[in-house]
């Protein structure tokens, strides 16, 4: 029988240490909505999503109450729209029509984000891929809940540098079109290398073509719980430190697994994966940077940060894998700057730079995330930063992502405000030297060799 | 049997256990186990209860328990399905 101390420990995690399930994401295939006519396509999409997801929010809410665990977000991911709209969309405005339909669906079923306004172009772009990418700035301006992602490279195919260069322009144009809200549109746009098919987290969630008709994926969270657990081993050696992270990750993930199975049962939709994640929020006590500080670093970004993140990420996986029957998605520690008050402070004080963040992305999921850069950063420089991050993912056989926000009209020393879970971010300095001639070359970077590992 | 855990946290005073037990009796909920402890000067009680009979109105009972705890006894009382604790602490 469960003891009172175990009950109190669980409830303390929930009420004092911000333990929550970050998202239940319902993946829905829209492949059966493909039609030659754009209005018919939109009609089918609307019908499929609003039927499949009609109980998602209410089921989420009752699980939340019955088990006493907050479920912060209920979301939907769909088949990459470039595939769904390929037959019917003749212009990029046709794609915007689909974006608006998705937005309407999200509003109707009550989810805060719907992901999958996406194109997978790691090797080449079809005409539809190109039209979708061109439509992204307008689609993100004219919708509220739609999230967009583009996969630009993979370990198997190399990096599509034409698409990387194009995304430099698209990110900037999205920033320009949403300049009134500190370029918020860019917070809903992410580019990937090795994008997973079953990621439940936004902005990068989409329902991959390898998935079944619909599926439940769950993302867990709990940086505060890890930080609290580490307080009890303050002067212990690395063995004990790692053991503590692992045990904590196990407990956190078991809650995710329970919620995933329960949601799957109640919605009668198969369970896909649990994403083993430490996802911070701007709340005090819900920060990855605080974990670093607890480990013994004065600030996130200090020498030792990459090592600290590497061990954290690895132990989260080791503990989490045993707690869940199926693990997938991005799985690891997230380091979004604007969504983590400790990271925000570190950037403000100059302890954490863009270059250090890039180094950190070599050892964790996911990448350069929610980083505000000066609004006058050249498009080619944005493409260069994307190319660097894609290269890290390609060579290291891992998922990497870039979600940069060039804040129009603001520069280093100022702060961008995104609100809610998206938080706020000080504008970080970007290397001034040009990479224009490099990124303008066009073509592809070939896939790396998989032998002679050094 | 479907089990749930009731926790009651608040300042210690006369009649907390009686109040909660009366509420459970009225709702036809059987108590399987009770334990209590004082943490940082606060009264902490845990009950394991059988909720098989109220499965279809679990949320309703949960809301009225919380309301009764707050308004009548001045404590935070909540009921959670047992699985969340079981899954977290047992392999």
Features:
heterodimer; A: 454 residues; alpha/beta; Anaerobic Ribonucleotide-triphosphate Reductase Large Chain; 2 domains; two-stranded parallel ribbon; 15 helices; 44% helix; globular; B: 91 residues; alpha+beta; Alpha-Beta Plaits; four-stranded antiparallel beta sheet; 3 helices; 37% strand
So how many helices of chain B? Answer: 3
What is the radius of gyration of chain A? 21 Å
Fraction in beta strands of chain A:
15-25%
Number of strands of chain B: 4
Largest sheet properties of chain A: 11 strands, mixed
The rough form of chain A would be described as globular
User: Which pair of protein chains has the largest interface, and what are the residue counts?
Assistant: A-B, 23 and 25 residues
What order do the strands of the largest sheet of chain B run in, or round the barrel if closed?
2-3-1-4
Poorly predicted regions of chain B:
none
Given helix and strand content, the structural type of chain A is: alpha/beta
* CATH architecture descriptor text of chain B: 2-Layer Sandwich
CATH topology of chain B: Alpha-Beta Plaits
The termini of chain A sit apart by 51 Å
CATH superfamily of chain B: ACT domain
Bin the helical content of chain B: 25-40%
Look at the structure and give the CATH class of chain B: Alpha Beta
Please give the domain count of chain B: 1
Quaternary form: heterodimer
| Uncertain parts of chain A | none
Number of domains of chain A: 2
